[in-house]
Amino acid sequence: MADGRVTTGIKGFDEMLGGGFLPGSLVLVRGAPGTGKTSLALQFLIHGATACDEPGLLISFEEFPNSFYRDAESLGWDLRAIEESGRLHLMFTSPEVFLASLESPDSRLNHLIREAGIQRLVLDSVSHFDRLTSDPQELRHLYTSVANGLRRERVTAVLLGEESRSMYSRAFKGGISFIVDAIVMLRYVEIESAMQRAITVLKMRGSNHAKEIRRYEIRPGGIQVLDVFAGRAGLLSGSPHRIV
Ligand SMILES: Nc1ncnc2c1ncn2[C@@H]1O[C@H](COP(=O)(O)OP(=O)(O)OP(=O)(O)O)[C@@H](O)[C@H]1O
Ligand SMILES: [Mg+2]
């Protein structure tokens, strides 16, 4: 841990964060399908488990656990082996069960968090809460309960949020952006007929952070944050152009 920061192990990304996440903070990582949200989150947990001795828990609302192991394997990570070390835990559940568990002190979830000494937690993804209610007030209340529950456990939590162009405003209608301490955005950008990936830190309470947009790639071994997109404007609006 650098300067009390929770490092992700993604070098260029930790630099953008001023060393890493703030301990105990809630971080929203949002991006379109396939941008690398799950990969980033897994890397954060694996780095914690293997390099920082910080046990992690991934809670997934996806229905197919096996695809998780397979996707991780394609990035060179043997999740089962890390799970066996006791420093990585994977839990496949539903948003309903998760919410109820978080609120009951005797739940399996709370026992696990305490007994395994979980310090890093990932929710994949918070967008699944959106289908629990169509009422924005209720959704906000729901997100607040999740945030309070996670803060009570003092874990550093990464919440993944799915984003698509048409759902842009809907997906974040519950005001989750206001509830979290930090927001990281992953984006596809089209430059000269090629798709590239861009990462930026949009907000980080209580800390300075880089405002730049950097290029990243997903490769075996994990996410690699590369150079700044220099001399380009409009990257996040979806119509990048060269500054002349
Ligand atoms: N071994 C690999 N080499 C290069 N790229 C890879 C490799 N494995 C996965 N990827 C890339 O990672 C992408 C998937 O990343 P990931 O599953 O983390 O995205 P996601 O944002 O969680 O997606 P979703 O919204 O569907 O859950 C793939 O679309 C692929 O482009
Ligand atoms: Mg994913």
Structural write-up:
This protein has 244 residues and is of the alpha/beta class. The chain has one domain: 3-Layer(aba) Sandwich (Rossmann fold), CATH 3.40.50.300. Helices cover 31% and strands 27% of the residues. The strands form 2 sheets. It has a 9-stranded mixed β-sheet with strand order 3-2-4-5-1-6-7-8-9. The chain is globular, with a radius of gyration of 17 Å. It starts with 10 loop residues before the first helix and ends with a strand. The model has no long low-confidence stretch (mean pLDDT 92). Magnesium ion binds next to helix 2.
In short:
The protein is an alpha/beta fold and 244 residues long. It has eight helices and eleven strands.
List the helices and strands and how they pair.
Blueprint (H helix, E strand, L loop, with lengths): L10 H6 L9 E6 L5 H15 L4 E5 L4 H10 L4 H6 L3 E5 L2 H9 L4 H8 L4 E5 L11 H17 L3 E7 L13 H4 L2 E10 L2 E11 L9 E6 L2 E7 L3 E2 L7 E2 L2
Parallel strand pairs: 1-5, 1-6, 2-3, 2-4, 4-5
Antiparallel strand pairs: 6-7, 7-8, 8-9, 10-11
The structure holds adenosine-5'-triphosphate and magnesium ion (MG).
Adenosine-5'-triphosphate binds next to α2, α3 and β8.
